[in-house]
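Recap for those who missed Tuesday's class. We walked through two folding examples back to back. For each one, the amino acid string is listed first and its predicted structure tokens come directly after. Nothing is annotated here on purpose, so try labeling regions yourself before you check the end of the notes.
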Amino acid sequence: MSTPAPALPKRPRGRPRKTLDERDEGNRRRQLVRAAARLFRRKGFDGTSTRDIAAAVGMHSGSPFYHFESKGALLYEVMEQGMQAAMARQQQALAEGGDAPALLRRLVRNHFETLHGPGADFIPVMLYENRSLDARQRAGIARLQREYEAPWLPVLQALADSGRLRADIHLARLFIFGALNWSVQWFDRKKRATLDEVTDEAMVLFLPPHRQRVTA
């Protein structure tokens, strides 16, 4: 009689457990994205090497290519993740509700937080390094920007309908974003007003208070 073959070990149910390297993949990618955002903002895309990014997170110079196929792919990831986080924060801000002036103030305040709060490096990178993306990547970021800006139009329309805003809402949106985004050039938490104070001043510019006419 032949000796029976040993029974094979039973396969565990459910998804197979991830290896240590697989579990670390997400953490390393996040570290690379954060480091790349800081360096791209400070040194520019062209002035930042993959070696610089690797050194910032304690990797060997070629290791980032295990996580991203190119420096351009890492640049796109910086912008995409930043926009996704900004849209999530904006959605939370709008969920509180309120009338049109209150909603505009909340949108402005939230955008200032996106520009100057934690993890804000991606905005200057997106504003000034867009030319470094390829056509497909630029189209993807443009789509995210449209999604982010879309909730502003109903608020501006409500303000126009009530007479508080007398400008064309599409031009008003462009002017507002142009003014807010330019603050990345001059705002300094240590030297300037707080974000709440800057928001108050912005609202005076964008939405002057009503002046009641005095009748004789």
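Example two. Treat it independently of the first, because the proteins are unrelated.
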Amino acid sequence: MTADDLIAVQTLSVGIPAQATLDLLEGDLGVRLSKLLTSVRVDIDMVEAADLADGSPAHTAWQLLRDQPGIGWVTAGKLLARKRPHLVPVYDQVVRCVLGRPESFWFDLHAALRSVNWALHHELIALRQVAELPQTVSVLRICDVVLWMYHRTDHQQRSCIGA
């Protein structure tokens, strides 16, 4: 985890407590997270991935972060999405409000991206091309932006707390 990662995540409207920041950058938490992330491929897309189950390195990394004081499930997901943008999606209060609380958001999104000959995946790639964004912008990030643009205003006006 780098300072750039922490700053990038904070631009997504989350804060990371000072102690957790120091532990991620210079402490045991950063070492443990790095060991887990070395087992999570950087070159694989969620549409292809199958190893996101409980106990997998990606899920274990999410749990490790989630369980830190002041981090929680949203920030943990955003940190991992920063480190593995093609594999780990952003799942926050706005996305939860749009999509509800599936038993496993990662598995449900993986299945949705693959259904009907990868139709959703191809649609998101097409949106990225229309927007003239580079391929470094992940399909998952395009999905997140679409969901936010679709619901953010309603979410704020109604003070949604998720389905």
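Answers for example two:
Residues 46 and 87 are 4 Å apart (CA to CA).
Residues 3-83 form one domain.
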